[in-house]
Design a protein that fits this description.
Oligomer: single chain
Structural class: mainly alpha
Number of helices: 3
Order of helices and strands: HHH
Radius of gyration: 18 Å
Helix content: over 70%
Largest sheet: none
Strand content: under 5%
Length: about 90
């Protein structure tokens, strides 16, 4: 009998990026609702970026690197936007 080789199913690599961006949106919105949230948001963005880089090294998958840099770029732009917007209170 011949063995039937099953090809591995392609993983949805964009799922990692989407989840990381969704997490970024959630904590950025929550930080926007409190006074001094820009500092907390900046710290969380830094931690999120660093964690993405560490995970990408550990699992050796490029989508984690892409996700980390997207979090950094989008997070930086939202922090700059924080400075221009008046307080919601």
């Amino acid at each position: 009998m011949e063995e039937i080789k099953q090809e591995p199913k392609p993983q949805n690599r964009w799922k990692v990026v989407g989840i990381n961006i969704a997490v970024l949106v959630v904590y950025t919105v929550l930080c926007r609702l409190i006074d001094g949230g820009i500092v907390i948001d900046a710290l969380l963005i830094g931690i999120h970026f660093f964690a993405g880089i560490v995970i990408s090294i550990a699992v050796r998958r490029w989508e984690w690197v892409l996700s980390a840099f997207l979090v950094l770029v989008i997070g930086f732009s939202t922090c700059v936007n924080f400075l221009d917007m008046p307080n919601m209170h």
